[in-house]
Every structure is written in C-alpha cells, then in structure tokens.
Design brief:
Strand content: 15-25%
Shape: globular
Bound molecules: 2-deoxy-2-amino glucitol-6-phosphate
Mean pLDDT: 93
C-alpha cells in the first residue's frame, strides 16, 4: 500500500525523501512523488513507475532544493497509475498533501466541492481531501485539519504542507499507520520505521486523530481541539542492517536465511525450565484453559500459519479451532462470543480486514489474542493479549520469516494450552519444547542444501500451472507453498488436500504437469503415497518433499528433497516450508521477476 514520508531538517530534503521512500518500496507501489519547500515555494515532482523513474525525471526537471517536504509512493486504488494520479496533490491555493488509505465518502465530498466551484485534475480520493482541507483553511492549519477530519470517513494518514507555513510539515492519521521520527535537529514522518532508521531510531507513534507539527523548532503534537499533547518517545530495536540486503541478491533470500535466528529470538524468551512460558504476553495457564472454541482469523500467509495452529491445537489441546479468512469472517455474522478466544495473526499488525475482524470479535464479547510482528501496530495495541513475533523487519512482499515465527508461536501456544488442560503430560511438553528449540539448527542444515532446490525450480519455469498436494499439516503447508509460488513467479498453482483430488481436480493433470507433494506425516504417509501414484499414473512430473527415513519407490518421484526427521511429525512444517519457499524464490529469480516487489501486490494491505 502507499508509503508516506516527510522531512524537516538541514539536509537536502529531496534526497532524504527519495532515500526514505526507497525503504518503503516493499509496501508495493506504482508511482511516486515529492513536494519540497524551495525558498518558500512548494515545488512538486511526480512520476508513474518506480522511484528510479522519478529520479530520472528530476534529471531533466531539476531536483527541488530545500530542507522540508513530503514524499509518497502510490499503490493505485482510485484511478490508474499515472503521473496525474500520483501524489502529492494540491487543493487550491494553500494545501499540498500525500495520503495513504481510502476516503470512503470521497464521491459525495467531490460533488459538494464541485458544486462549490472547485475543479479536479485527477481521479483520486486524495485530491478530494486536499480540496476539502483547502476549503476549510482560514489561516489556522490545526483548525482546518480538525474540521476536515470531521468530514471525511475511512482510513487514512496524511502528510500536509500549507503554503502559508514554509518549512513546516503537518501529519494526521485515522486507522492507517504513521510514525514521527525524532533525529538530532531534524524530524520525519513515515508510514513505517525502516524509512527513518538510517537517520534515527527514535520515534513517536501517532495515534488516531492526533496531529503532528514538524518545524525548525522540533515536533509538537495536538488533539482535534488544538490542545498540545505529551507523547512517549519510543526506540526501534531494529538497526539499519535489518532493513538492508547485506549482500543477498534479494530481501526474500536474506529473510529466508534469517529464519533460524528469528525462531531463536521468538522462542527462547518464552521458555523457562524447559517449558513454554507466555506470562510476559499476559497468557497464563489459568486464563487460557477454559475457552470453548478458538477462532484463528488472518489473511494470506498469516492465515496459513493459522492452519498449522489449528492442526496442533486441536490435536494436542483438544479445543475446536476454526480458521477463517478475515475478509470473510467480518461479513458473515460469526457465531463467536463470551467464552471464545480469537487469535489474530498478522505480520504488519495493520491489515485492514484482520483489524476489523478483531474489533468485531471484541464487540461480540470474545477475548482477543494478537500474534503480531510490527511493534506498536494497531492490532498489537488493541488486543487483550499479545504475543510479538521477533522476526525483525520483513521487507520482501512475500512473507517467509514472519510465517516461520508465526507457526513457532502457534506451537508454544498449543503446548501451553495442552499442558494447562492436562491433555499432554509435562514430560511430553518438555520433549516438544526441546524439539522446537532445535529447529534453528535443522533449518540451517536445510539452507545449506539450497542448490538442489534451484535445480528443481529450473524444471518449473515453463509450467503453466501446477498443484501442491498433501494431507493434514502437509496440506496446510501446501497452501503456503502454492501462495508463495503464485505471488512471485506468476505461475498459477493450487493447493489441494491430496485425498480430495479424485473428486474433480485430478482431471486437470496432463502429461508433464508438475505436482509438488508434501509428505512428512508418518500416519498419513501410505495414503499420500497412493495419491502421488494417482497423479504419476496420469503423467504428472512429481516433486516430493519428504522425511529422510522415507525411501520412495523408484517410480514415484521425479525429484525428491529430504528433510531431517529430528522432531515429532507435528513440528515438520517448520523445516518443510523452507524448500517450498526456496522453490518459489528460485523459480521467480529464474523467470526474471521482481522478487521482492511482485506486480500488483502490497506488503501491508491497509485497505479492504
Ligand atoms: C504473504 O506472502 C503475502 N504477502 C500476504 O498474504 C500477507 O501474508 C497478508 O497480506 C497478511 O499480511 P499481515 O500478516 O501483515 O496481516
């Protein structure tokens, strides 16, 4: 989704804005622009395409010279990607702004503004906000912002320049995230922390309906009645390296390699005396023992982590778990209420549907537990209980290390819940916890064999479509493997419960069609093998991801990648997802795709 930055200081503002925007590229965008105060005048540059296109354009149009301004990367919602629709947008004489989010009532506002004689040059909802703010402006920016906030509906974050107030940046938000960075003699606004890490680790979280004013004297905060606010300064625990590629060709590859460390950071602090201990997250045996049903609600990869959670929680703790897609859950009158627990899983903590689902569940009386990576995000702040995953910043749009730690948390939670309910013994819990702690070493061993996966990826390049099949946990994993391949390689694929194939989908198999079979669950092994044979008999090229004790019959697998079987089958999704991630990664690389920023996708989906 769109990225916002703003700067006031002594450096060349245009340079800072472009650099900061480059750290938000991961969010996905199709155009970019900046506006800078140059000797009291606002100079704007914007362009369809990448930041490189904007920089190229500025070689001809000139780089605005000044020390204060705003910048934006746009992910098109209202109006096609074009120079005209790119931000910043002007509203009449006084206002220039950038916007992340959606103004829901923009149509009616546009009509009213048009009737009042205002004209529009773009198709965006953003220009409506700019014109409205300009109409409301009568010399006092705070009053104009407050009045505008009363009139617009939706989720949005705005970075604003008023031509009457040179070298000053205003910011306000409702729902969409925005932070305010506090450096030495300079200040920033940004949609996310990585944008400012090069300059400062200190930042404030702007809350809903709060206004920030950045000028040469520093940063001030106000409420909607123009009362000054005191806010708590926070310090990012990520450093610059975390947001850099550090020699890897892509962020995705770097993040895949960071998985062992991410598991250690997430799991180690939550283990005491060999047993899970989630007390620092507000979770005790007493307050989780008695839930009637558990709902896990999330989107995309995070939802797939929930599928793994469902399997292990039901098996170990014996509590029914319903996994739901957040955008479905929120609109289908879910039967959730007091006595139920809803677990919201989200890397960004800002996914609009997941946040709305959590709020709905709260209204209905359920307890909420958030499993979130981004510190201080909306979902993290609003949940009753919170388990942070410590993956560090995930920059690649395709989620890898965040998924890994999400499932690590699912295990910790399932172990704790099962122990509290007496459905597993302390001894079993210790054994499983010890195996979880061994996972970083197991994954490191798999990463060392990544070349074999590059070779397998090479065999998929020409495929038009493929299937991922598996049973139980392997099916949950197949869903994630398939999504990973789709989103970055642009090859169509589908994940199927292996036993369901013959109820229709097997008719898709044609000679040469690749089928990736995940077979790590011993209890289901024979059944899965039968399904693999069925597709093989119809000409499929089979790629088998299985445990190292399994000796596949000579004719069952065209390619085989073995996983160390050091742990209980239930933990196999942790090592088994790694080859699936790497197959997707290498396929996308070999097809020449933009791996970290796949087309049409945004990292953080803050609109419906
Ligand atoms: C994963 O590779 C995707 N980019 C996407 O499915 C993502 O997991 C989903 O949008 C949820 O995001 P969240 O974890 O930030 O809520």
């Amino acid at each position: 989704m769109c990225g916002i930055v703003g700067y006031v200081g002594r450096r060349s503002c245009a340079e800072v804005l472009i650099d900061a925007l480059s750290k938000l590229e991961y969010r996905g965008y199709d155009s970019a622009g900046i506006a800078v105060f140059e000797q009291g005048q606002i100079r704007m540059r914007k362009s369809k395409g990448r930041l490189a296109d904007l920089s190229e354009q500025m070689k001809h149009t000139g780089i605005p010279q000044g020390n204060a301004g705003i910048g934006h990367t746009r992910w098109a919602t209202h109006g096609e990607p074009s120079d005209l629709n790119s931000h910043p947008h002007r509203g009449g004489r006084y206002v220039t702004l950038v916007h992340n989010g959606i103004i829901e009532n923009f149509r009616e506002l546009k009509q009213r503004l048009t009737e009042a004689g205002r004209s529009f040059v773009s198709d965006t909802d953003t220009e409506v906000a700019a014109q409205l703010l300009d109409q409301n402006y009568a010399g006092d920016p705070l009053a104009a912002i407050a009045k505008t906030m009363e009139q617009i509906r939706g989720s949005f974050a705005l970075g604003i320049l008023f031509s009457d107030f040179p070298d000053t940046v205003y910011a306000v938000r409702r729902e969409s995230p925005l932070i305010v960075g506090a450096g030495e003699g300079e200040s920033f606004i940004a949609s996310d922390v990585p944008a400012i890490l090069k300059y400062t680790k200190n930042y404030y979280l702007l809350e809903h309906d709060e206004i920030a004013v950045l000028d040469r004297n520093g940063i001030r905060f106000f409420d909607m009645q123009s009362n000054p606010l005191e806010k708590q300064l926070m310090t990012a625990d990520w450093d610059m390296d975390a947001a850099e590629k550090q020699g890897y060709e892509h962020f995705m590859l770097k993040e895949i390699h960071e998985q062992p460390e991410a598991i250690r950071r997430t799991v180690l602090p939550r283990v005491a005396n060999g047993l899970p201990d989630l007390s620092e997250c507000g979770i005790t045996k007493e307050n989780i023992r008695d839930f009637r049903n558990i709902y896990i609600v999330a989107c995309g990869t995070a939802m797939h982590a929930g599928m793994v959670g469902k399997n292990v929680i039901e098996k170990l703790a014996g509590v029914p778990v319903i996994v739901d897609i957040a955008s479905e859950f929120r609109y289908r009158s879910p039967l959730i209420g007091a006595g139920d627990l809803i677990i919201i899983i989200s890397q960004s903590g800002e996914t609009a549907d997941s946040l709305a689902a959590m709020r709905l569940a709260k209204q209905l009386g359920a307890k909420t537990l958030a499993v979130v990576n981004a510190k201080g995000s909306s979902i993290a702040r609003e949940a009753d209980m919170l388990i942070y995953t410590h993956a560090g910043p995930e920059i690649a749009v395709a989620s890898t290390k965040a998924y890994m730690v999400q499932i690590a948390v699912m295990y910790l939670f399932a172990f704790e819940l099962a122990l509290s309910r007496g459905t597993i013994t302390e001894e079993t819990c210790r054994r499983l916890t010890a195996q979880l702690l061994e996972m970083p070493a197991v994954i490191t061993e798999i990463l060392a064999r990544k070349d074999a996966l590059k070779e397998i990826a090479g065999s998929l390049l020409k495929a038009e479509s493929l299937l991922y099949i598996g049973r139980g946990l392997d099916y949950a994993l197949s869903m994630e493997g398939s999504l990973k391949l789709k989103e970055i390689s642009y090859i169509h694929s589908e994940a199927y419960a292996a036993g369901e194939l013959k109820h229709g989908t097997i008719s898709l198999i044609y000679p040469g069609m690749p089928v990736i079979a995940v077979d790590t669950q011993k209890a289901l092994h024979e059944k899965t093998v039968s399904n693999i044979k069925e597709v093989k008999a119809r000409g499929a090229v089979t790629i088998l991801v299985c445990g190292d004790s399994y000796q596949p019959e000579a004719d069952i697998a065209d390619h085989c990648f073995r996983l160390p079987e050091t742990a209980d089958d239930q933990l196999m999704p942790m090592p088994a997802v790694v080859p699936l991630q790497l197959i997707a990664y290498y396929t996308a690389v070999l097809r020449g795709n933009d791996v970290d920023k796949p087309r049409n996708l945004a990292k953080s989906v803050t609109v419906e």
